[in-house]
Amino acid sequence: MGHLVIFSAPSGSGKSTIVNYLLLQNLNLQFSISATSRLPRGEEKHGVEYYFHTPEEFRQKITNGEFLEYEEVYTDKFYGTLKAEVERIINSGGNVIFDVDVVGGCNIKKYYGDRALSVFIQPPSVEELRSRLIARGTDSLEVIESRVEKAEYELTFAPQFDVIIMNNDLDTAKAEALKIVSDFLAE
Ligand code: ADP
Ligand code: 5GP
């Protein structure tokens, strides 16, 4: 039976970087592609980073009961995990890795219990988050400010996770994540 590994953190903490690193290791992990109503950023493609939908399409999927969990992470910007996506990965014999917001992460952990490991990526500070988002260069200053504003609240969720990894030095955080996830999958 497949296992589930959940990564959550405020935007800019480095969770996509760490998740992408883990996907390259020999851990039989497959990324759970979420659905979202935000627009693609840069080179993002439908069915790769996300399934992109209009807010109307997203609301229809909510009505149809297609989500394991969903959140309106920012105003009018929905993000959610499709039940069919998790089934697809489990049925193919893989372990699932999620990159979801803190509330979604807690909900998925509650749903799967011991089959899931929830990991919180802790940034060194809110100021450092802002700098990373500016340096990433993928969002407008307005979007960055709304993400930073939300970060203080999101950081209060850290104690609810199974493990907290501090992402100050990236290589150290990657090594720690690899060890923790490998150990969990070997249980
Ligand atoms: P998230 O998925 O949490 O929003 P990203 O993985 O996109 O965050 O990281 C945000 C930005 O910060 C990226 O440009 C990434 O390269 C950079 N970054 C990640 N970890 C570190 C780190 N330890 N030190 C400096 N920059 C980092
Ligand atoms: P971004 O717009 O930077 O890709 O993601 C914004 C936030 O939405 C991040 O915190 C990301 O982890 C979260 N997110 C992505 N997919 C999902 C999902 O399926 N469910 C929930 N609850 N949050 C998600």
Description:
The protein is α/β, with parallel strands linked by helices. It has a single domain, classed as P-loop containing nucleotide triphosphate hydrolases (Rossmann fold). 43% of the residues lie in helices and 24% in strands. The strands form 2 sheets. The chain has a 5-stranded parallel beta sheet with strand order 2-7-1-8-9, with helices on both faces. Strands 4-3-6-5 form a 4-stranded mixed beta sheet, sandwiched between helices. A hairpin with a 2-residue loop joins strand 5 (67-74) and strand 6. Helix 5 runs antiparallel to helix 6 (141-155). It is globular. It starts with a strand and ends with a helix. The structure holds adenosine-5'-diphosphate (ADP) and guanosine-5'-monophosphate. The site of guanosine-5'-monophosphate has 14 residues, from strand 5, strand 6 and helix 4.
Instruction: Please compute the radius of gyration using only Cα atoms.
Output: 16 Å
N/C terminus separation: 12 Å
Shape summary: globular
Looking at the structure, the CATH topology is Rossmann fold
By CATH, the superfamily comes out as P-loop containing nucleotide triphosphate hydrolases
Side-by-side strand order of the widest sheet: 2-7-1-8-9
Question: How do the SSEs run, as a string of H and E?
Answer: EHEEEHEEHEHEHHEH
Bound ligands, each once: adenosine-5'-diphosphate, guanosine-5'-monophosphate
- Helix and strand composition category: alpha/beta
| Mean pLDDT across residues | 96
Q: Give the domain tally.
A: 1
